[in-house]
Design brief:
Blueprint: E1 10-16, E2 21-27, H1 34-41, H2 45-50, E3 54-59, H3 67-70, E4 78-83, H4 92-101, E5 105-109, E6 125-128, H5 129-132, E7 148-150, H6 155-164, E8 168-170, H7 191-204, H8 209-217, H9 220-230, H10 244-263, H11 277-294, H12 299-311, H13 314-318, H14 322-326, H15 333-341, H16 344-354, H17 360-365, H18 370-390
Parallel strand pairs: 2-3, 3-4, 4-5, 5-6, 6-7, 7-8
Antiparallel strand pairs: 1-2, 1-8
């Protein structure tokens, strides 16, 4: 008997008002059924990969939450967002209230059926604000939160959601040109990031280590970030690195180049909020690298795939056309084609990273099946979560 293909499942990040990832929002384009939920949670991969983040499941109905499925959903890690229209069904409100009493966190997703009052036991909500619009200011009680707003695609929408009382947010608002990657109070002249670009150019032409060290030493904040990153539990090999010279000599140019690429997106002030572009860039880099590895690409090809993913947000970060940023980096033609026009296989895979809603055709164009895509997503989100916690 042929193996049943793994269902297509989309994963989207959820952040709080402090720009910290707090959960992942999971959606099946055809809706979750019992078999899909058992395939996802029946093995330890999912919850282990995304720890310590929660998983939020968008469900059409609580009918899929049968006892064998509920046994796989630890209440301290899983939230269910159930379509509020399901409340029109007999006994649904009572069933959801029972699940909540048993410890499962429940959000009512979307507007209530016409003429129905909000059940007293079910006061936490989620909304697709891209499709349904934002609620009026102060319309959500903080006592029953955090409430989730998804489809938040602009900074204006984000602020409106905050004013309404939402505490968790999902969408591409971090990419909005209005504030692309900027901390609200940031008064940065871009010196650190320009110095990073200079160092990456030096690495690309195989410059002497002394030149690279000299550039790093000109920027104490950058040196601090680099030493913090290379000594973090997520990246260190158990050897403490105490100086920039040690970092360059011990970790090697390959790892140094990767960390410098990521440090482009580091917060620019120690007391500022994290930059939400950082985990997005880290995820893209990890996705493209892992897909290249699965294709049998060698180490150099994997490095270029990783770089393509990480660099794909440079125009947002610097608010500068991509072509102007790539001039000094001497990148291979396929990498430039992917970054400038989303051409070629790397470009198709970048599109895959950027597309909020997927279908089998999008996956086919990138040469990926749904089972591989699931595993690649878990790998990439795991890595991005670690990066965000250590940079």
């Amino acid at each position: 008997m042929a193996a049943v293909p793994f269902p297509l499942v989309e994963i989207r990040s959820v952040a709080n008002a402090q720009n910290e990832w707090v959960a992942l929002l999971l959606r099946a384009p055809e809706g979750f059924d019992e078999a899909t939920l058992q395939a996802m949670f029946g093995a330890p991969d999912l919850l282990a990969a995304v720890a310590p983040l929660d998983c939020i499941l968008l469900l059409d109905s609580p009918a899929v939450l049968i006892p064998p499925v509920l046994k796989l959903l630890p209440p301290n890690r899983v939230v269910v967002a159930v379509d509020a229209r399901a409340l029109a069904g007999e006994g649904v409100a009572r069933r959801l209230a029972e699940l909540q009493m048993e410890g499962l966190r429940v959000l009512l997703d979307g507007p209530l059926p016409e003429g129905m009052q909000q059940p007293l036991a079910l006061r936490s909500v989620s909304r697709n604000v891209g499709g349904e619009g934002v609620l009026p200011p102060a319309s959500l009680p903080a006592l029953f939160g955090p409430h989730l707003a998804y489809g938040v695609d602009t900074q204006t929408s984000l602020r409106a959601c905050e004013n309404a009382g939402f505490g968790w947010f999902s969408g591409v608002y971090a990419l909005d040109d209005a504030d692309a990657g900027r901390e609200p109070h940031q008064q940065d002249d871009g010196t650190t990031r320009r110095r990073l670009m200079t160092m990456l150019a030096l690495l690309s032409r195989d410059a002497d280590a002394c030149e690279i060290e000299a550039q790093l030493k000109q920027d104490p904040a950058l040196s601090f970030h680099l030493l913090k990153l290379v000594n973090s539990a997520a990246f260190s090999g158990g050897t403490h690195i105490a100086s920039i010279g040690q970092a360059i000599s011990r970790i090697g140019r390959r790892q140094l180049q990767r960390w410098l690429q990521l440090l482009l997106y580091a917060r620019q002030h120690p007391d500022g909020p994290p930059n939400l572009l950082l985990p997005i860039a880290a995820r893209r880099g990890a996705v493209l690298e892992e897909l290249c590895k699965r294709d049998g690409g060698d180490r150099d090809e994997q490095d270029l795939a990783f770089m393509t993913g990480v660099f794909s947000l440079l125009d947002r970060l610097f608010r500068t056309p991509m072509a102007a940023l790539l001039g000094d980096l001497n990148l291979p033609g396929d990498v430039e084609a992917a970054l400038l026009a989303r051409d070629g296989l790397l470009g198709q895979r970048l599109r895959l990273c950027e597309t909020p809603s997927l279908d089998s055709g999008t996956l086919d164009a990138a040469g990926v099946d749904s089972g591989a895509w699931w595993q690649v997503q878990l790998h990439a989100y795991h890595w991005a979560i670690q990066v965000a916690r250590n940079v």
